[in-house]
Structure formats: structure tokens, C-alpha cells
Amino acid sequence: MYFASRLRAFAGAAALITASAIAHAQAALPNVVILATGGTIAGAGASAVNSATYSAAKVPVDKLIAGLPELSKVANVRGEQVFQVASESLTNDNLMTLAKRVSALSKQADVDGIVITHGTDTLEETAYFLTLTVHTNKPIIVVGSMRPGTALSADGALNLFDAVNVAASKDAMGKGVLVTMNDEIQSGRDVAKTVNIKTEAFKSQWGPLGMIVEGKNYWFRAPAKRHTMQSEFDIDTITALPAVEIVYGYQSVPSTAIDAFAKSGVKAIVHAGTGNGSVADRIVPVLQKVRSDGTIVVRSSRVPDGFVIRNAEQPDDKYDWVVAHDLRPQKARILTMVALTKTNDTKELQRIFWEY
Fold first, then answer.
1. What distance in Å separates the CA atoms of residue 59 and residue 55, rounded to the nearest whole number?
2. Between helices 329-339 and 346-355, what is the axis angle to 10°?
3. Summary mean pLDDT of the chain
4. Residue range 2-25: mean pLDDT, rounded
5. Most buried residue, 95, 239, 274, 341, by most Cβ within 10 Å?
């Protein structure tokens, strides 16, 4: 009896010590909040071989976290379901809601990093919007997957683990909004979805900022453009986003879309031109008329890489147009919306495009 009681006492003390050690270890870990918005990373297919045919935005954030117990080794993680939407259906209101929540969390002392799970179709637009509007040095990571969790070789679990790992890392602070996909750390400003059926879908023409290998971050470059804490824009002061639309350039293109958008009262039109942002001869006078009526014209390119050169192809100074620099049309739209909350002066808008 004596030995039994002593053994029980020893076991009880050991359990207390173990519990205390676990609690101490958890207290020492960074605190990361996962904001879930839907997308493929929360998707499910009919079978394991359905990697391209599936339903997006099905799995809630608590199940994503529960399915990845390895997260507890790198951070104290909690989740919030901001919305559950396939990203092609996101709206400006969704962007505003998400950015304001990210901003609020970033101000909390008990939050060290933030991860946003997101559909890949418009992930780059959300990442850039957050880059422009959230004032924080804390890591903000946007992550998605190209295959649903039910598929063979699903990429979501590792992508999410990498995202939390980067969000929990001090070396990710001050680098702006990041995207972690396929072991790479990309700038939210530069990255774009370039393939729609491969896991290495997200690339930047300027290259990744770094890589994650077995939970360790390796950095190779830093963002050169203004972002987050250096941005003159602040989501906490933005109450609405102006209407900005994109028109596409191609052979035999009519002015139908431009006419309709101008009639609807949009504040700016982004022209996704061919080559160096080229504009068809019959479209030039239409855009000149739009600009003379007060609508901002931004000349961008539909080409994946390169950048639009001001006063090449078109006399932008003469027409009072803005060029999008290296931003693809969808990101040029994001920056134009944000910039128009501050100014509609084309010289100021062009400065903003050079700096951001």
C-alpha cells in the first residue's frame, strides 16, 4: 500500500510537472490568428482523384485547424470565419470587411501574426489590397491551395503550415503582406496566379522573396515598393471604394464596354492593352473623350510580364492618361481604387503607380 500510494503521488506530481511544462511552452509560442474566407483550401471533391473538379468554400476554419495538429508546434493558433466564399465572387465590400478585421487584429498585443486562407482566383488582388491599406509591421500571410483537401497530393495542408510558420516568425516582420504557396514566399504586391491546374501556380516576374524548407525561412530579397507601414493609405480611414472597371484590348475590339462603363459613371477605366499597353486606333479617341469628361484612364498591359512605358505607344502626357507600370490590369484596378480615395489628380496618381 505504501509503495502504491507513493507511486500514485509520483505520477500525480509528474502529471503536474508535464502540464506546467506544456503550458509554459505554449505561453512562449507566438500567437497567430487564421482568418478564413473560403476557396479551394476549404474545398472538397467527390473523390480523391478530383483535384480540378470540386466544390470550393466547404470546410470551416475550425476543421482546417483541427486537421493540422502540427500547427501547435509553431504557434498558438485560433481561427475566425470572416466569410465562406469562392474568391471569384468576392466584392469590394468583402475586401473592406477583411482589411478592417486584419487591421484591428494587428493592433492587439496578443496577436503576433495573421494568416488569411483564400481562394486562389483573386488571391493576388486581396493580398495587394492589404499591402496598400493595412498599417502594421506584423506578418500578414495570404495562403490558398490549388487542390482541395480531399484530393490525392493535396497542397493545402503544407501551404497552411508554411503560412502559420512564416506568420509566427520574427524575420517576416516589416516585409509587407506575403503569399506562401508551393514552398515559396512571395510578395503580395508582385505575385500573380500564372497557371490554373498546377500547384506551382503563383509566380512573380521579379522572383520570390524566399522559401520555406522544413519549417525554416530562407530570404533572398526584400520588397522595394511602399507597403503597409510606409503606405499613405489606411483602411481605418477608408469608408468606400470608388467604381473602377477594366476593359480588354484585342483585335477588332469595339468601344462597347468603354461606352457602357462611362455611361454608368465609373471613376476610372483600366485599359488592358496588348504589348506595351497598346490601344487600337479606333479606341484612342474614345478614351480621350472619356478622359475629357472626367474619367481617369489607366493604360496597362494584358501581357503577363514586363511593364508599360510612359509616353511609348501613346502620348500619355498629351492625353492626361496614367500608366500602370508593372501592375497587371487586376492589380492596377486595386491601386486605382485605393488611390482615388485620396486624389483624382493624374500627376499624383502617376506618382502613386511609380511608388507602389
1. 10
2. 120
3. 92
4. 52
5. 95
Phi-psi region of 36 (alpha: psi -120 to 50; beta: other; left: phi over 0): beta
Domain residue ranges of the chain, discontinuous segments joined by +: 29-230, 243-355
Third-level CATH fold of 29-230: Rossmann fold (3.40.50)
In terms of Cα–Cα distance, which of 221, 27, 184 is closest to 112? 27
Residue 325 φ/ψ region, left for φ over 0, alpha for ψ in the -120 to 50 degree band, beta for the rest: left
Q: For residue 20, is pLDDT > 50?
A: no
Query: CA 72 to CA 93: how far, in whole Å?
Result: 33
CATH architecture under which domain 243-355 falls: 3-Layer(aba) Sandwich (3.40)
Asked whether this chain's domains 29-230 and 243-355 adopt the same fold, the reply is yes
Catalytic residue among 40, 136, 180, 336: 40
Give the model's confidence band at 2: pLDDT under 50 very low, under 70 low, under 90 confident, else very high. low
Contacts (Cβ under 8 Å, ≥6 apart) of 163? 115, 141, 142, 143, 180
225: closest CA among 96, 95, 352? 352
DSSP state letters, 187-237: ETTT-EE--SSSS--EE-TT--SEEEETTEEEE-----S--GGG-S--GGG
Name the pTM for this structure.
0.90
**Cell representation of residue 144:** 490558398
Residue-wise pLDDT for 204-250, tens only, equals 999 999 999 999 999 999 999 999 999 999 999 999 999 999 999 99
- The answer to whether 40 is a known catalytic residue is yes
- pLDDT, tens digit, for every residue of 334-344? 999 999 999 99
Closest CA to 199 of 149, 252, 156, 258: 156
- 333 by Cβ neighbours in 10 Å (0-12 / 13-18 / 19+) ranks as buried
